[in-house]
Protein backbone atom coordinates (compact mmCIF):
# COMPACT_ATOMS: atom_id res chain seq x y z
CA UNK A 1 0.00 0.00 0.00
CA UNK A 2 2.84 2.38 0.86
CA UNK A 3 4.55 1.71 -2.47
CA UNK A 4 1.27 2.29 -4.34
CA UNK A 5 0.71 5.55 -2.46
CA UNK A 6 4.23 6.76 -3.28
CA UNK A 7 3.77 5.80 -6.93
CA UNK A 8 0.50 7.70 -7.03
CA UNK A 9 2.09 10.81 -5.56
CA UNK A 10 4.98 10.61 -8.01
CA UNK A 11 2.60 10.33 -10.96
CA UNK A 12 0.54 13.21 -9.60
CA UNK A 13 3.53 15.55 -9.30
CA UNK A 14 4.81 14.47 -12.70
CA UNK A 15 1.44 15.41 -14.16
CA UNK A 16 1.53 18.76 -12.35
CA UNK A 17 5.04 19.41 -13.65
CA UNK A 18 3.97 18.51 -17.18
CA UNK A 19 0.99 20.89 -17.02
CA UNK A 20 3.16 23.72 -15.62
CA UNK A 21 5.79 23.26 -18.34
CA UNK A 22 3.11 23.05 -21.03
CA UNK A 23 1.44 26.29 -19.92
CA UNK A 24 4.52 28.35 -19.02
CA UNK A 25 6.93 27.28 -21.78
CA UNK A 26 5.33 29.41 -24.57
CA UNK A 27 5.65 32.56 -22.48
CA UNK A 28 9.20 31.63 -21.47
CA UNK A 29 10.14 31.07 -25.11
CA UNK A 30 8.61 34.43 -26.05
CA UNK A 31 10.85 36.10 -23.46
CA UNK A 32 13.92 34.26 -24.79
CA UNK A 33 13.08 35.18 -28.39
CA UNK A 34 12.44 38.81 -27.49
CA UNK A 35 16.02 39.09 -26.21
CA UNK A 36 17.51 37.86 -29.51
CA UNK A 37 18.04 39.56 -32.84
CA UNK A 38 19.11 38.65 -36.34
CA UNK A 39 20.01 35.03 -37.06
CA UNK A 40 20.09 34.25 -33.33
CA UNK A 41 16.28 34.13 -33.43
CA UNK A 42 16.49 30.85 -35.33
CA UNK A 43 18.93 29.15 -32.97
CA UNK A 44 17.66 26.89 -30.19
CA UNK A 45 19.12 27.73 -26.81
CA UNK A 46 17.76 27.83 -23.28
CA UNK A 47 18.90 31.44 -22.84
CA UNK A 48 20.42 33.86 -25.37
CA UNK A 49 24.21 34.11 -25.18
CA UNK A 50 24.06 37.85 -25.80
CA UNK A 51 20.68 39.09 -24.50
CA UNK A 52 19.60 42.49 -25.76
CA UNK A 53 16.61 44.78 -25.22
CA UNK A 54 16.90 46.17 -28.75
CA UNK A 55 13.58 44.59 -29.74
CA UNK A 56 11.78 46.32 -26.88
CA UNK A 57 13.31 49.65 -27.84
CA UNK A 58 12.37 49.07 -31.47
CA UNK A 59 8.75 48.26 -30.62
CA UNK A 60 8.23 51.62 -28.92
CA UNK A 61 10.37 53.71 -31.28
CA UNK A 62 9.16 52.48 -34.68
CA UNK A 63 5.42 52.80 -34.00
CA UNK A 64 3.06 54.34 -31.43
CA UNK A 65 2.98 51.16 -29.33
CA UNK A 66 2.75 53.13 -26.10
CA UNK A 67 -0.43 54.76 -27.43
CA UNK A 68 -1.75 51.33 -28.42
CA UNK A 69 -1.22 50.08 -24.86
CA UNK A 70 -2.98 53.16 -23.48
CA UNK A 71 -5.89 52.52 -25.86
CA UNK A 72 -6.19 48.95 -24.61
CA UNK A 73 -6.06 50.08 -20.99
CA UNK A 74 -8.75 52.72 -21.55
CA UNK A 75 -11.06 50.42 -23.49
CA UNK A 76 -10.67 47.40 -21.20
CA UNK A 77 -11.07 49.46 -18.01
CA UNK A 78 -14.15 51.28 -19.32
CA UNK A 79 -15.70 48.00 -20.50
CA UNK A 80 -15.15 46.39 -17.10
CA UNK A 81 -16.53 49.39 -15.19
CA UNK A 82 -19.66 49.66 -17.34
CA UNK A 83 -20.21 45.90 -17.45
CA UNK A 84 -19.94 45.51 -13.68
CA UNK A 85 -22.18 48.51 -12.93
CA UNK A 86 -24.91 47.34 -15.29
CA UNK A 87 -24.47 43.69 -14.29
CA UNK A 88 -24.74 44.42 -10.55
CA UNK A 89 -27.98 46.34 -10.97
CA UNK A 90 -29.40 43.83 -13.45
CA UNK A 91 -28.39 40.83 -11.33
CA UNK A 92 -30.13 42.37 -8.31
CA UNK A 93 -33.37 42.54 -10.26
CA UNK A 94 -32.95 39.14 -11.89
CA UNK A 95 -31.73 37.36 -8.77
CA UNK A 96 -33.79 38.93 -5.97
CA UNK A 97 -37.00 40.24 -7.55
CA UNK A 98 -39.79 37.92 -8.62
CA UNK A 99 -41.43 38.98 -11.88
CA UNK A 100 -43.02 37.29 -14.87
CA UNK A 101 -40.61 36.40 -17.66
CA UNK A 102 -37.47 36.38 -15.52
CA UNK A 103 -36.27 32.96 -16.67
CA UNK A 104 -36.82 33.64 -20.41
CA UNK A 105 -35.00 36.95 -19.99
CA UNK A 106 -32.02 35.20 -18.40
CA UNK A 107 -31.97 32.62 -21.18
CA UNK A 108 -32.10 35.41 -23.76
CA UNK A 109 -29.13 37.11 -22.10
CA UNK A 110 -27.21 33.83 -22.15
CA UNK A 111 -28.17 33.22 -25.79
CA UNK A 112 -26.73 36.59 -26.83
CA UNK A 113 -23.30 35.54 -25.57
CA UNK A 114 -23.43 32.36 -27.67
CA UNK A 115 -23.40 34.17 -31.01
CA UNK A 116 -19.94 34.26 -32.62
CA UNK A 117 -18.50 37.70 -33.14
CA UNK A 118 -18.46 37.37 -36.91
CA UNK A 119 -22.24 36.78 -36.90
CA UNK A 120 -22.93 40.27 -35.54
CA UNK A 121 -19.98 42.02 -37.18
CA UNK A 122 -21.76 43.50 -40.20
CA UNK A 123 -24.78 44.75 -38.26
CA UNK A 124 -22.65 46.17 -35.50
CA UNK A 125 -20.45 47.90 -38.06
CA UNK A 126 -23.51 49.72 -39.44
CA UNK A 127 -24.51 50.76 -35.92
CA UNK A 128 -21.02 52.04 -35.13
CA UNK A 129 -20.87 53.98 -38.38
CA UNK A 130 -24.37 55.42 -37.89
CA UNK A 131 -23.39 56.65 -34.42
CA UNK A 132 -20.26 58.27 -35.82
CA UNK A 133 -17.99 56.13 -33.62
CA UNK A 134 -15.88 54.51 -36.33
CA UNK A 135 -12.17 54.75 -35.52
CA UNK A 136 -13.10 55.85 -32.02
CA UNK A 137 -12.43 54.19 -28.67
CA UNK A 138 -16.07 54.73 -27.68
CA UNK A 139 -17.05 52.51 -30.60
CA UNK A 140 -14.80 49.73 -29.30
CA UNK A 141 -16.22 50.10 -25.79
CA UNK A 142 -19.76 49.81 -27.15
CA UNK A 143 -18.82 46.79 -29.26
CA UNK A 144 -17.06 44.96 -26.45
CA UNK A 145 -20.10 45.30 -24.18
CA UNK A 146 -21.84 42.79 -26.45
CA UNK A 147 -19.77 39.87 -25.19
CA UNK A 148 -18.79 41.08 -21.69
CA UNK A 149 -22.18 42.26 -20.41
CA UNK A 150 -24.14 38.98 -20.89
CA UNK A 151 -21.35 37.03 -19.18
CA UNK A 152 -21.13 39.35 -16.18
CA UNK A 153 -24.93 39.55 -15.79
CA UNK A 154 -25.31 35.77 -15.86
CA UNK A 155 -22.48 35.09 -13.39
CA UNK A 156 -23.43 37.83 -10.92
CA UNK A 157 -27.08 36.76 -11.02
CA UNK A 158 -25.99 33.30 -9.89
CA UNK A 159 -24.02 34.80 -6.99
CA UNK A 160 -26.84 37.19 -6.11
CA UNK A 161 -29.28 34.31 -5.72
CA UNK A 162 -27.00 32.63 -3.17
CA UNK A 163 -26.93 35.60 -0.78
CA UNK A 164 -28.97 35.04 2.42
CA UNK A 165 -32.48 36.40 2.22
CA UNK A 166 -32.39 37.26 5.93
CA UNK A 167 -29.85 40.04 5.29
CA UNK A 168 -32.18 41.74 2.83
CA UNK A 169 -35.19 41.35 5.11
CA UNK A 170 -33.32 42.82 8.07
CA UNK A 171 -32.19 45.82 6.01
CA UNK A 172 -35.72 46.42 4.72
CA UNK A 173 -37.08 46.30 8.26
CA UNK A 174 -34.55 48.99 9.22
CA UNK A 175 -35.91 51.20 6.44
CA UNK A 176 -33.27 50.60 3.76
CA UNK A 177 -34.26 51.22 0.15
CA UNK A 178 -33.44 48.68 -2.60
CA UNK A 179 -30.44 50.80 -3.66
CA UNK A 180 -29.11 50.88 -0.06
CA UNK A 181 -29.61 47.12 0.21
CA UNK A 182 -27.67 46.61 -3.00
CA UNK A 183 -24.78 48.98 -2.27
CA UNK A 184 -24.43 48.65 1.52
CA UNK A 185 -25.47 45.02 2.13
CA UNK A 186 -24.94 42.96 -1.02
CA UNK A 187 -22.03 44.72 -2.69
CA UNK A 188 -19.44 43.99 0.06
CA UNK A 189 -20.40 40.31 -0.12
CA UNK A 190 -20.04 40.27 -3.90
CA UNK A 191 -16.40 41.42 -4.01
CA UNK A 192 -14.95 37.97 -4.86
CA UNK A 193 -17.47 37.58 -7.67
CA UNK A 194 -16.87 41.13 -8.90
CA UNK A 195 -13.11 40.61 -9.01
CA UNK A 196 -13.44 37.29 -10.83
CA UNK A 197 -15.91 38.45 -13.46
CA UNK A 198 -14.21 41.83 -13.82
CA UNK A 199 -10.81 40.25 -14.43
CA UNK A 200 -12.21 37.79 -16.96
CA UNK A 201 -14.00 40.63 -18.76
CA UNK A 202 -10.79 42.69 -18.71
CA UNK A 203 -8.81 39.83 -20.27
CA UNK A 204 -11.47 39.33 -22.93
CA UNK A 205 -11.48 43.03 -23.83
CA UNK A 206 -7.67 43.24 -23.68
CA UNK A 207 -7.19 40.33 -26.10
CA UNK A 208 -10.08 41.06 -28.50
CA UNK A 209 -8.95 41.31 -32.11
CA UNK A 210 -11.82 41.10 -34.62
CA UNK A 211 -13.83 44.15 -33.51
CA UNK A 212 -10.65 46.17 -32.89
CA UNK A 213 -9.42 45.33 -36.39
CA UNK A 214 -12.75 46.21 -38.01
CA UNK A 215 -13.72 49.36 -36.13
CA UNK A 216 -10.34 51.16 -36.11
CA UNK A 217 -8.40 52.61 -39.01
CA UNK A 218 -5.35 54.54 -37.82
CA UNK A 219 -2.40 53.35 -35.76
CA UNK A 220 -3.18 55.90 -33.05
CA UNK A 221 -6.60 54.31 -32.40
CA UNK A 222 -5.63 50.64 -32.56
CA UNK A 223 -5.33 48.38 -29.54
CA UNK A 224 -2.36 46.13 -28.86
CA UNK A 225 -3.61 42.90 -30.52
CA UNK A 226 -4.14 44.72 -33.82
CA UNK A 227 -0.88 46.64 -33.47
CA UNK A 228 1.04 43.38 -33.00
CA UNK A 229 -0.74 41.69 -35.90
CA UNK A 230 0.09 44.57 -38.25
CA UNK A 231 3.78 44.72 -37.44
CA UNK A 232 5.81 44.41 -40.63
CA UNK A 233 9.46 44.19 -41.54
CA UNK A 234 11.58 46.00 -44.08
CA UNK A 235 10.17 43.89 -46.93
CA UNK A 236 6.79 42.40 -47.75
CA UNK A 237 7.82 38.87 -46.78
CA UNK A 238 9.82 39.72 -43.68
CA UNK A 239 8.22 39.65 -40.25
CA UNK A 240 10.15 41.10 -37.28
CA UNK A 241 9.75 38.12 -34.97
CA UNK A 242 11.88 39.73 -32.29
CA UNK A 243 9.62 42.78 -32.18
CA UNK A 244 6.51 40.60 -32.17
CA UNK A 245 7.82 38.55 -29.26
CA UNK A 246 8.84 41.68 -27.34
CA UNK A 247 5.41 43.24 -27.86
CA UNK A 248 3.70 40.01 -26.81
CA UNK A 249 5.70 39.93 -23.58
CA UNK A 250 4.89 43.57 -22.84
CA UNK A 251 1.13 43.08 -23.22
CA UNK A 252 1.09 39.75 -21.33
CA UNK A 253 2.95 40.90 -18.22
CA UNK A 254 0.10 43.21 -16.97
CA UNK A 255 -2.37 40.31 -17.12
CA UNK A 256 0.00 38.04 -15.21
CA UNK A 257 0.48 40.72 -12.55
CA UNK A 258 -3.28 41.24 -12.19
CA UNK A 259 -3.89 37.51 -11.76
CA UNK A 260 -1.13 37.25 -9.15
CA UNK A 261 -2.49 40.24 -7.22
CA UNK A 262 -6.09 39.03 -7.17
CA UNK A 263 -5.49 35.28 -7.16
CA UNK A 264 -7.05 34.73 -3.72
CA UNK A 265 -10.19 36.65 -4.59
CA UNK A 266 -10.37 34.86 -7.94
CA UNK A 267 -10.27 31.44 -6.25
CA UNK A 268 -12.84 32.45 -3.66
CA UNK A 269 -15.03 33.96 -6.36
CA UNK A 270 -14.89 30.82 -8.50
CA UNK A 271 -15.69 28.56 -5.55
CA UNK A 272 -18.28 30.75 -3.79
CA UNK A 273 -21.69 29.19 -3.82
CA UNK A 274 -20.32 25.76 -4.73
CA UNK A 275 -21.08 24.44 -1.25
CA UNK A 276 -24.08 25.56 0.71
CA UNK A 277 -23.81 25.60 4.47
Q: Can you lay out the helices and strands and say which pair or pack?
A:
Elements: H1 2-34, H2 54-62, H3 65-96, H4 102-114, H5 117-130, H6 137-162, H7 165-173, H8 178-189, H9 191-207, H10 210-215, H11 224-229, H12 241-261, H13 263-271
Strand % is under 5%
CATH superfamily of the largest domain: MetI-like
H/I helix tally: 13
Give the tally of structural domains: 2
SSE string, helices as H and strands as E = HHHHHHHHHHHHH
Approximately how much helix is present in the residues?
Answer: over 70%
The value of Rg in angstroms is 23 Å
Overall CATH architecture of the largest domain: Orthogonal Bundle
Strands, total number: 0
**Average of per-residue pLDDT values:** 83
Structural class: mainly alpha
CATH topology (fold) name of the largest domain: MetI-like fold
